[in-house]
Amino acid sequence: MTSDVPMPRRPRRALVVAAALVDDLAAPTSLLAARRSAPVSLAGRWEFPGGKVDPGETPEEALHRELREELGVAVRLGAEVHAPAGAGRDDIGWILNETYVMRVWFAEVIHGTPEPLIEHDRLTWLPRGEWHTVPWLDADVPIVDSLVARTAGLR
Fold first, then answer.
1. What is the Cα–Cα distance from 115 to 29, expressed in whole angstroms?
2. pLDDT tens across 44-79, in order?
3. 10 Å Cβ neighbour count for 45?
4. Cα(126)–Cα(117) distance, rounded to whole angstroms?
5. Can you tell me whether residue 91 is helix, strand or coil?
6. How far apart are CA 15 and CA 101, in angstroms?
7. Which end of the chain is more exposed for a tag (fewer CB within 10 A), N or C?
8. 67 CB-side CA count, 13 A
């Protein structure tokens, strides 16, 4: 027996964007990590800088805006860091939780010096080989794993 009642659809997750900010897009040797200062449940954990995409913005425009607001820098975007098929991915990007999905791009600073202006109380450049040495937000750990794999073998 079939039913004409449609299956309930999973609500679409809101899109956020972030940068894997590196010292050099062609041969990254350092990755910027940003320590959250709020909310209390996330304070002290590390993440990729970025934020929500506002209505009318492209994801890339949102990322440029967020990096200006959060870090005071202008960047050049590189390749997008796609989530692998399977766990941790939906049709848009990296699943953060039931509410958000994130797209991530490699980026390098072209103007300014990163400073923790909002959302963060500390920034640190992690040398390659030490990218897992800070307590990343749980959802960001698979992204770090992907970055490590993508940069393996670079000098």
1. 20
2. 999 999 999 999 999 999 999 999 999 999 999 999
3. 16
4. 19
5. coil
6. 5
7. N
8. 30
